[in-house]
């Protein structure tokens, strides 16, 4: 019975002090709305910051180019690996990192049978095709065993295939 008496007293108090009750409700509504707005602004800012740091498909590209001083001291610095296997292993241990792709590129002449073309050759690790979402048009993707064993395996672009190989299957 005390519960109903307490509810009755509370309602009488609210009705007796209407202005105070309205101002209290208004304060609660404004307070809750402010908290919601601040949280939404914080989450929006976080997403904007992540979007400005990461590239397409939520990736972050780290590129190293030797400085002029490094090139003067070592002219081969441009062709040497800038990230070691230890660097890649360390990056993999960072919380939130799903895959690490590394690559190095060099322009060279490629020869297939009697055809020679200028092309860019990219040396990649096992995470590259996943991170860059490469679509394999023909054949199979590179496998982990290809990387671990140092097998001579390659992926070639459609353009290179059309310029050099007039539809030859079973290229090894």
UniProtKB/TrEMBL annotation:
GO cellular component entries: plasma membrane
Xref: InterPro entries: MacB_PCD (IPR025857), Macrolide_Exporter_MacB (IPR050250)
UniProt entry keywords in alphabetical sequence: Membrane, Transmembrane, Transmembrane helix
MacB-like periplasmic core domain ranges (all copies): 21-163
Chain ranges passing through the membrane: 21-42
Molecular-function annotations in GO: transmembrane transporter activity
DNA-binding found in the keyword field: no
Domain of life: Bacteria
Protein name from the UniProt record: MacB-like periplasmic core domain-containing protein
């Amino acid at each position: 019975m005390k519960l109903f008496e307490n509810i009755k007293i509370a309602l009488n108090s609210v009705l007796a002090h209407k202005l105070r009750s309205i101002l209290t409700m208004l304060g609660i509504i404004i307070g809750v709305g402010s908290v919601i707005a601040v949280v939404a602004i914080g989450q929006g800012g976080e997403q904007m910051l992540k979007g400005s740091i990461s590239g397409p498909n939520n990736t972050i590209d780290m590129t190293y180019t030797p400085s002029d001083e490094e090139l003067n001291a070592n002219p081969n610095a441009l062709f040497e690996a800038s990230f070691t296997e230890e660097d890649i292993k360390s990056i993999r241990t960072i919380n939130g990192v799903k895959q690490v792709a590394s690559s190095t590129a060099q322009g060279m002449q490629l020869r297939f049978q009697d055809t020679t073309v200028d092309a860019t050759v990219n040396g990649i690790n096992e995470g590259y095709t996943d991170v860059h979402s490469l679509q394999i048009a023909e054949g199979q993707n590179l496998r982990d065993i290809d990387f671990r064993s140092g097998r001579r395996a390659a992926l070639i672009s459609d353009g290179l295939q059309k310029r050099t190989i007039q539809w030859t299957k079973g290229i090894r």
